[in-house]
What does this fold into?
Amino acid sequence: MESPARWYIINTLSGYEQKVAKAIRETAEQKGVLSSFGDVIVPVENVTELRRGKKVTSARKIFPGYILVKMVLNDLTWNIVKNTPRVAGLLGGSKPLPVPEVEVNRVLKQVEEGAVTKEIEVMYDINETVKIIDGPFETFAGVIEEVDSEKKRIKVLVSIFGRSTPVELEFGQVEKLK
It folds into this structure.
């Protein structure tokens, strides 16, 4: 009698999570043991960032370098996983440890809620120098005087004709000077 399928965490080379997940599914299908594998998941969440003044949404891995796989652990499935290119191993090494269903459900819930896009806060500090990249003062540099995180607006002191003039801008209209 075969044991039930349980969740395991596979350690992969970072950046190859999707390729490893696909390779595991394909190898399992070729060897006729796809039924011993359940889901093979790369947990990701959608994140909106401000880049060059524009909002960009991208998928960000929750656990870079790791994937979740539900499988019946036996010699054949273990060999499929450990012989897949770019797999560093299973969490637990030669005696893989199953992940409690509760923990996996928590991660999957986080992935689902990730469908509601998160916005990464661009943190600006008072007295920080920024360059204006949009609007009538484009290309001007200035020093931040006030930050309103709720409204995502800042007040920047810009030198115009030798005088410091306060200018109110949105976060997306400025970028930090390095």
User: Anything to note?
Assistant: The first strand starts at residue 6 and ends at 12. Residues 17-30 form the longest helix (14 residues). Helices lie at 17-30, 75-82, 101-113. The two ends are 63 Å apart (CA to CA).
